[in-house]
Structures are given as C-alpha cells and as structure tokens.
Amino acid sequence: MTKVKKINKNTSVPSVSSVVNIIVNGIARVSKASPSTRLLDYLRSELKLTGTKEGCGEGECGACMVLLDGKPVNSCLVLLGQCDGREVTTIEGINANELFKSFEETGAVQCGFCTPGFVVSAYALLKHNPHPTVAEIKEALSGNLCRCTGYKKIVEAVEKVTSDRVSTWQ
Length: 170
Hints:
This protein is an alpha+beta fold.
C-alpha cells in the first residue's frame, strides 16, 4: 500500500482557494475547493460519493480507502491539492461484480461499514496480481480494520475470486 504522510493537525496549511484538476471515477473535475480540504471530505461533501467512509480520520482503519493513480491510499490523509492532475477511484467507480458477489457469498459482510475499504484494497491487489497467495492477500488488506467479521471471511472472499476466475478482469 502506498504510504501517505500524515497531516499534523498543528501544521498550518494555506487555505487559499485554487483550481484543482482531478479525475474521479473516470470523470474530469475542476474543483475550486481549498487545496487543504481532505480528499475524503471533497468526495463525500462536494461529490456526494458516500461509499468512502470516515472511520478514524487518522489513516489507521482503512474505511476511507480509495485508489490514487491506481494505488490504495487513505483519503483522510490526502489533501485535495495533492490530487491535482491525478486520478482517484472510489468504491462507486470500481466495476468488480465478482468481488462484490464473493464478499456476499462468503459472509465477509456484516455491518458493511468497512466493506468499501476492503473491496478497494482487494481490487487494487487483484488488478496487479490476479492470483495472489494468502500471505499477499493478508498483506494487501493489512491497512483495513473490521470489528465484526474478523478477517477469515474477508480473506476467503478474495481467495474465492482468484479460484473462480477464468480470465483476468479490469
């Protein structure tokens, strides 16, 4: 997982408005929001993409996981200004029906709060490694927390996709 530098809450960040060009789920956007706005807040408040959840707000739980240029990042740690000229994919932009179905079939979904983050992390792994080992799956999901299911069913869901897969998917 790409490590994103944590934002120190005591650090002063200029609140000047500037234009940020960003592609979200394949759609080019021009934002006039402050570059110091968290990506998470921009996605949820401005674009109404509420599948990306806010859990801890500190990059520890993975509920806010999105893809930034194809790599999983915690959107609570990324400033909108850091996304200028870059591509963001949220859970709403992921087309992975077999992954969603596998989560459902294996019982990997309980309350559902953490599910989008896990799916984004699993999707990123499977795009780059269509047949990962269990250890690679666990490593890819290590930035996500779940209080309901534990991790066995979630790992099984990702394993099921790899074993059911006949050809690679996008």
